[in-house]
Design a protein that fits this description.
The complex is a heterodimer of chains A (465) and B (435).
Chain A (H helix, E strand, L loop, with lengths): L1 H13 L4 E2 L2 H6 L13 E4 L3 H14 L3 E4 L16 E4 L6 E5 L4 E4 L5 H8 L4 E2 L12 H7 L6 H4 L6 E7 L5 E5 L10 H5 L8 E8 L1 E2 L3 E9 L2 H13 L6 E6 H11 L9 E9 L4 H14 L4 E4 L3 H12 L1 H5 L5 E4 L2 E2 L5 H14 L7 E3 L4 E2 L2 E4 L4 H20 L18 H4 L2 H14 L21
Parallel strand pairs in A: 2-4, 3-4
Antiparallel strand pairs in A: 1-2, 5-6, 6-10, 7-11, 8-9, 8-10, 12-14, 12-15, 13-14, 13-18, 16-20, 17-19
Helix pairs in contact in A: 1-3, 8-13, 13-14
Chain B lengths: L1 H12 L4 E2 L12 E3 L4 H14 L3 E4 L16 E4 L6 E5 L4 E5 L4 H9 L3 E2 L12 H7 L6 H4 L6 E7 L5 E5 L12 H4 L8 E8 L1 E2 L3 E9 L2 H13 L6 E5 L1 H6 L7 E9 L1 H17 L5 E4 H12 L9 E6 L5 H14 L2 E8 L4 E8 L7 H15 L3 E6 L2 H4 L12 H11 L15
The chains are: A alpha+beta (465), B alpha+beta (435).
The structure holds flavin-adenine dinucleotide (FAD) (2 copies).
């Protein structure tokens, strides 16, 4: 009964065809890149800030939760409608509203794909820095909500460093403009707080980003190693030598094989690991930087260092890196992308332990990751039809996150907490830390309607003080 | 209440470390002052204040106690100067954690030993403390290349207004484990709690440093060069414009304005940029003096701290979209002149941030400053920017809000303040919209 009224009201706001409520349609929105499934009551396609506000107000009236959804590429279950209610699909709000070169800004709708913004800026000689490997299918709203990173974040920072302002629909349906075109808008940095909040503090309906001049020149290197340790030690050595490459990415043999089998990038099949290194900036010192890095790589055991000669060679190397997750899908029916961060110098240690975890649980775990940031992505392969294996996967994932925490790192570098890491939060946070975050959540969303069930672990049983 | 609170505080920190009255904060004198020595003690002090309902004002280097509105109440001044230890220094991973009372200069000197830097250069760098810097979010010319405090803080420890201690962020570059709570406390001016420890990300120290300082016959020629720079691939650390009055303070021929660039990096890139900028400046009708290494650093300190130590300053900071900067500089000069004042203006020419010092002109009319500020705020806000008062005499502050029109989301800010500080005892009344 009440379900009917809810859907009727939603249809009134956005038009009948923009609400999906049939069982088949809903089934398509009950999952994302993570392993759990929950069915929404409705999926609503929105086109404007006003519509989003009205839809959220409608959810408030009916006491129904809502979950914003962009490309659905997140890997932690962030878009799974855990509490039912409405999935608010942002993908049709995909317009580029303004490119303002004199002020080095762009204003976009949240449903725009990250790569599309890049493509719009490139002919003008400008770029938007955050470039998650999923940039073809991930939306800017999703990037904001997850505080996405990417290969270039080692030098240039993550999404949060490049977002200046947001228009948001708060959980009660009010619209607010946070931040703005000018720097240092007085007041608390609500824009900064909203970035990375995983759709739990409201829905962003407009994003104001920084754009920057493209760099004059880049050089891309591929260093080839016969041992993982040597590769990961090189990463620290480059930084210790005072260099800050734009990217420092790493992939291991299993990944290389998968990439070669599907993308044919010309990667060597018989090595243990590869480092993809890119330096950028003024052209004057790139040659010498590339030479210094090549020397360091060799000094740390690289058997060969290739330097991309032209854009075509460079593109080929990057295709391998960007396509790695997809290529790994060849190796097993499913994989869980683990995401943890350690201080860079702990990389050799943590990689060794990851392989021990793989052995312990009898699983295969290839690695492809942002080595410069210490942000690893063990990909735990499995077969989703095998329940026992799935249980081992979850245990192995948790064990890897514990390792990251023990080594001074954290439980998520870029994919967020979502549903996956609720319990892992306690590995890096005290009850008081979590409680402070909960206070933010209740201030924004007293009725707990915005993407409920995410981020916060179950309350701990009160123990003696 | 005072005697009771005083003895409670003494029992926490020891008798010699509580005194009263405290030093005035923007004209308001706290009854007591306390100097806790550890983060636990800060927590205990805050708990004691909370239980007594006493309003607290955290104090770092005291360089920007003029920022914001005068405190609505001030009972206890919490000096953080004894919290000045390094907690953990990890050069290999380019990060350092230190207590909030440590001076930025001391931290810079320390990390320089390992050839790293924290590339933040707020004015008054010598006295600024880490906690004060994070709370007040100042910025210097180098924000052009390196951004602001928020881009360099990886984590922090905060004592909340009820005395609870929390930890935000961590010590890794990428961290999306829950909300980015650092952002809540950065630039909150200490009204959501007392920051007791900060973890910063560091950068390898550049191999070389140079500066090119140019003098231009008028502002228009200087801004044309700024435009050319922005369209180029060049990557200066800082690009600073000084109007004629400000350039005068720096010495040199009268009637000219200054454009200065700071360059750092490898020898090759510094040489190239020195060459290119010299060309830009000269083509643009200016002169170009090239300074290297220590001389360059000294010149930049001079530029950074130009507006420091002014007599009874009326100082404001304006932030507008980049392209509106020249118009705001001109407006400041014009309005000041009409009011019989002088506007000394320095602008981070490529980030849209400028600072205006109003000084007595040839024929001062006291009171006219208010009109200048109001006019400038109107211009700044019309350009989607803001004007914030950094320092002014109390009489002026009584008639001019330090922050201006409340920003978007102000209701949520007030609700956050109430949620975290229900008693309203943390730096009350100083911040935006009476927070
Ligand atoms: C192959 C692959 C590679 C990846 N590589 C990277 C990488 O390099 N770096 C990285 O950081 N991530 C990476 N990811 C993860 C993912 O792509 C990013 O987190 C991305 O930002 C999610 O965007 P999306 O549009 O798909 O968001 P969704 O998955 O649709 O949503 C993600 C979260 O954001 C919320 N949300 C979505 N839109 C809005 C909105 N408008 N307002 C408020 N909340 C909203 C959702 O509720 C959900 O909690 C990768 C994923 C895949 C599958
Ligand atoms: C000459 C001069 C020029 C300046 N120019 C600029 C400028 O151009 N741009 C700019 O942005 N700033 C400017 N400032 C301000 C100054 O550089 C910064 O605000 C500085 O970082 C403050 O540091 P402090 O240690 O002196 O803090 P204090 O002045 O002691 O405190 C600043 C504020 O933060 C609070 N606070 C201090 N410590 C803590 C803590 N540990 N936890 C919570 N709250 C705390 C205080 O209560 C106070 O409200 C200038 C200051 C001077 C003296």
């Amino acid at each position: 009964m009440s379900e009917q009224a809810f859907i009727r009201d939603l249809r009134e706001i956005v038009g009948g065809s923009n609400v999906l409520a049939s069982s088949v349609d809903l089934q398509l929105y009950q999952y994302d890149g993570y392993l759990e499934e929950h069915r929404p009551e409705a999926v609503v396609f929105v086109q404007s800030t006003e519509e989003v506000a009205k839809v959220v107000q409608c959810c408030n009236r009916h006491g129904r939760p809502f979950v914003p959804r962009g490309g659905g590429t997140n890997l932690t279950g962030g878009t799974i409608p855990f509490g039912g209610g409405a999935v608010i699909e942002m993908i049709r709000m995909n317009r580029l509203l303004e490119i303002d070169i004199p002020n080095l800004r762009a204003r976009v709708q949240p449903g725009m794909f990250n790569l599309e913004l890049g493509n719009a800026l490139a002919p003008l000689g400008y770029q938007f820095i955050p470039d998650p490997a999923s940039q073809k299918a991930a939306t800017l709203g999703g990037n904001v909500a997850e505080n996405a990173g990417g290969p270039h974040c080692f030098k240039y920072g993550v999404t949060s460093n490049h977002v200046l302002g947001l228009t948001v629909v708060l959980p009660d349906g009010r619209v607010e403009k946070l931040g703005g075109k000018a720097a240092d808008i007085p007041g608390f940095d609500l824009t900064g707080l909203f970035v990375g909040s995983e759709g739990t503090l409201g829905i962003c309906t407009e994003v104001l980003v920084k754009v920057v001049r493209q760099t004059e020149s880049v050089k891309t290197l591929l260093a080839i190693y016969d041992s993982i340790e040597e590769g990961s030690e090189t990463v620290s050595a480059i930084v210790a030598a005072g260099m800050v490459p734009a990217t420092l990415e790493m992939m291991d043999q299993l990944v290389i094989h998968a990439v070669e089998a599907s993308l044919h990038c010309g990667l060597p099949m018989d090595c243990a690991t590869l480092l993809l290194i890119e330096v950028d900036g003024l052209r004057d010192d790139l040659e010498s930087q590339a030479a210094a890095i090549s020397d360091l790589c060799r000094a740390h055991g690289a058997r060969e260092v290739r330097v991309a000669k032209d854009d075509a060679e460079r593109a080929l190397l990057w295709a391998g890196r960007r396509g790695a997750f997809g290529a790994v899908a060849r190796l097993a029916p499913s994989f869980l992308v683990c995401d943890g961060t350690v201080p860079r110098t702990a990389l050799p240690q943590v990689l060794k332990k990851v392989s021990q975890v793989a052995a312990k649980y009898d699983l295969r775990i290839p690695n492809v990751f942002h080595a410069g940031d210490g942000n690893l992505h063990p990909l735990i392969l499995f077969d989703w039809r095998d329940a026992d294996m799935k249980a081992r996967v979850l245990k192995a994932g948790m064990e890897i996150l514990s390792l990251c925490a023990e080594l001074g790192g954290t439980i998520s570098g870029e994919h967020g907490v979502g549903l996956e890491k609720l319990d892992a939060m306690r590995l890096v946070m005290s009850e008081a830390d979590i409680q402070a975050q909960r206070r933010v959540k209740t201030t924004f969303d007293p009725a707990n309607l915005a993407n409920p069930g995410k981020i916060f672990p179950a309350k701990e049983v009160a123990c003696e003080r | 209440m005072n005697a009771e609170l005083r003895s409670r505080l003494e029992s926490i920190v020891g008798p010699g470390l509580v005194y009263g009255p405290g030093e005035p904060v923007d004209g308001v004198r706290p009854t007591l002052a306390v100097r806790p020595g550890t983060q636990d003690e800060v927590s205990a002090v805050v708990r004691a204040c909370a239980e007594a309902g006493a309003a607290m004002i955290p104090l770092g280097g005291g360089t920007s106690l003029g920022l914001g509105n005068p405190p609505a109440r001030a009972d206890v001044l919490v000096h953080l100067d004894r919290l000045d230890r390094v907690v953990e220094w990890d050069p290999a991973n380019l990060c350092i954690s230190a207590e909030a009372g440590m001076r930025l200069e001391a931290l810079q000197a320390l990390v320089a030993k390992d050839r790293t830097v924290l590339p933040l250069d707020p004015p008054g760098l010598r006295r600024v403390t880490l906690g004060g810097m994070v709370a007040a979010n100042p910025s210097g010319p180098c924000r052009l290349q390196y951004g602001t405090v928020r881009d360099w803080v990886l984590g922090m420890r905060v004592v909340l207004p009820d005395g609870e201690r929390i930890h935000c962020g961590g010590r890794v570059i990428k961290n999306v484990s829950g909300y980015d709570m650092n952002k809540l406390f950065i630039r909150s001016l200490g009204c959501l709690g007392i920051i007791t420890e900060v973890t910063f990300k560091l950068l390898p120290m550049p191999a070389r440093r140079a500066a090119v300082i140019g003098r231009f016959p008028d502002a228009a020629t200087a801004w044309a060069v700024v435009g050319r720079t922005l369209a180029s691939f060049l990557l200066p650390e800082a690009l600073e414009f000084l109007n004629v009055e400000a350039a005068q303070l720096l010495g040199g021929p009268p009637g000219t304005c200054v454009l200065a660039v700071s360059l750092s990096g490898s020898s090759e890139t510094v040489d190239r940029q020195v060459r290119d900028f010299t060309g830009f400046f000269q083509d643009g009708g200016g002169t170009a003096d090239v300074l290297q290494e220590a001389a360059a650093s000294r010149a930049w300190e001079g530029i950074r701290d130009l507006l420091e130590g002014a007599y009874d300053p009326i100082l404001c900071r304006i932030a507008v979209p980049l392209s509106a900067t020249p118009a705001l500089v001109a407006a400041a000069e014009g309005m000041a002149r009409e009011a019989g004042l002088k506007a000394v203006v320095t602008a981070h020419a490529a980030t849209g941030v400028l600072r205006v010092l109003l000084a007595p002109g040839a024929d001062p009319h006291p009171g006219e400053a208010l009109m200048v500020l109001e006019g400038l705020r109107r211009e700044a806000e019309a350009a989607e920017g803001s004007l914030v008062l950094e320092a002014a005499p109390r009489s002026l502050k009584a008639r001019f809000d330090a922050w201006g029109t409340p920003p978007g989301g102000v209701d949520m800010m007030k609700r956050l303040k109430t949620e975290f500080d229900p008693l309203g005892i943390c730096n009350p009344g100083r911040f935006v919209a009476g927070i």
